Amino acid sequence: MPGIEKLPLEEALEDSPQTRSLLGVFEEDTAAISNYCTQLYQAMQRIYDAQNELSAATHLTSRLLKEYDKQRFPLGGDDEVMSSTLQQFAKVIDELSSCHAVLSTQLADAMMFPITQFKERDLKELLTLKEVFQISSDDHDTAINRYSRLSKRRDNDKVRAEAVEDVYTSRKKQHQTMMHYFCSLNTLQYKKKTALLEPLLGYMQAQISFFKLGSENLSQQWEDFLGTIGTSVQNVRREMEEEVGQMQQTIQQMERSCDPLYAPCDPDPAHSPVCRNLTRKQGYLYIRNKTGLVSSSWERQYFFTQGGNLMQQGRAEVAGGLVTDLDNCSVMAVDSDDRRFCFQVTSFDAAPSSALWLSGCFLTPRLCCFLQQWIATINNISKRIYLSENAEEVAARVNQTALEAVTPSPSFQQRHESMRKKTSAATRSISSVGSEPSPALSALSFDALVAPETPIQFDIISPVSEENSGQNKAAAQAGRRSNPFGESGQDAPEDPEDSILHQLFIVRFLGSMEVRAAESADVISETMRQILAARAIHNIFRMTESHLLVTCDCLKLIDPQTQVTRLRFPLCSVVQSSSHQDNKRLFGFVLQTAGGREDSRAVCYIFESNNDGEKICDSIGLAKQIAFHSEIDLEEQSRLIAASSRPANPPAADGQVFLLSSSQSEDSDVGEEGKKRGESEA
């Protein structure tokens, strides 16, 4: 091949410096060729390894596509179109995997084998010859040096012969080694060209064969199929972009609208009214778990109502578990030392100590509103409103009725209007005969029985009057001790010792409020309705139990444990008493506080008893009768008490009502003796 330098074999024996210099050039060239071939071998090895990995990956992909039907996807696992499409792709990829396997075999034979042979055989052979040549050259120099130091004496013939033989052998070996070394270096100039071209030729031929094989497998039919799939992919991508755009707009709108919800409390509670018509509720709450006698811990759980049950579910749980039955349960807001916004749920058959304590989660916006919604929802469920067909409508009607109960009632206004018409007609009929209208017809006030926005007192507090205030102030100045209800140790008069009426009843205080028409027959029933509705709306279930002592001088509320008088009502201030028309356990009385005619005010007190509300009202009426006839002796009082124990007349339509004003008619006395006595005094 023209242009290739050679080492002259003829000059190997002479071993001139020029030859050595030319040999050094060839050795540098050999080192450069060896370094380059090593890098090229590494690159081709990577191609071969990548092709093997591609073949294995293609085969694995085909196998996974075939197993798509066996997968169980929670969403979209039954898409037959997708399954059939993937099966067709698996078939094509399986054929491509076979082509890649063939390509890997061809690369191993046509590309990797030639360059491996050149690297492992030819280059290593040159390195071996170079080492042998270096050793023989050193031996030749040693033999020449030894021969040059021989003595000229005849007795050194033997040594001289050995030196000559050594020079001969070393020179011959050097000459032969140099010629073979020169020959290999000259041959390398040719082998380096073939070692570079043969692997590249094999690589290209393998690729061409692979492409031809792929072209034969991917026919026109597959091209049409791929075109259809490409169109479907573009349509899906377009739908995805539209959906992403809509979701981005929704996210922006929700970020703007939900910004106030990120705060735990709403700065303006008027903008977040409480919905009290719910029969279903869900959300995160904290539940209190007792960890010891006095210690407890709070655990965050997801709670939801299901029918009449309260359920809880952990974050990693699939289904919820039952916590408690909400039918006929009681719910109320409570205070806790270590949590805010707490409420308590107590089952109807459970002890108060086993009540369920829940607290609003701090991640929930508007915690106060959230708490009230939970209380209202549980209250609706406890009334079994969820069993109705339109539960929310029924709950709305019930809550609307409760709201109307604490506002001026239109029904009473209508009833007053109808009674006004009857009163006017009766007045006209009486005027036509020349007589005056009856006082009973003109006694009813046509205004509301209870003033609008009248506050309701749910705790036992002594009625405040100027007289009591003055007494308390005087007692404080005198250094006397007064109780929390405004009574001093000297101001409260004791019952007269000759009073023979002492009746004790167990009652529970429901509430009291100021009324307008103290002597109206409807004022107690209207007060009962408003107090019971207010307790239901505000979820107030606690009642203070007391002992009601009825005497001829006063009514006393006594603490059953300490026997301390909580309240004392003078009997002369009690205007009337009445029990509920349907629920005989409920009763109440109207108290006229001390003061002038303009300054006096009437307060109605409502209680719950143990099924003896009528008996308590009878006892109050009897005490009033005895107090009215206080001048009679004890024997006459005993007769009145005995007469009161007889069966009373059937109650009126509006319930047992006793008007106990000082102008009461004497005909209302029970007992024949009391009637005669009243007629004689009249």
Automatic annotation (TrEMBL):
Topology class, membrane: Peripheral membrane protein
Localization terms from the record: Cell projection, Ruffle; Cytoplasmic vesicle, Phagosome; Early endosome membrane; Nucleus
The protein's name in its UniProt record: DCC-interacting protein 13-alpha
**Where are stretches of biased composition, namely Basic and acidic residues?**
672-682
Q: Which residues form the PH domain?
A: 278-383
The Gene Ontology biological process terms listed for this entry are: cellular response to growth factor stimulus; positive regulation of biosynthetic process; positive regulation of transport
Identify the keywords attached in UniProt to this record, alphabetized: Cell cycle, Cell projection, Coiled coil, Cytoplasm, Cytoplasmic vesicle, Endosome, Membrane, Nucleus, Phosphoprotein
Q: Which organism is it from?
A: Oryzias latipes
Composition bias of kind Polar residues appears in 424-435
What ranges does the record give for the region Disordered, renumbered to this chain? 406-437, 469-496, 641-682
Comp. bias (Low complexity) = 642-653
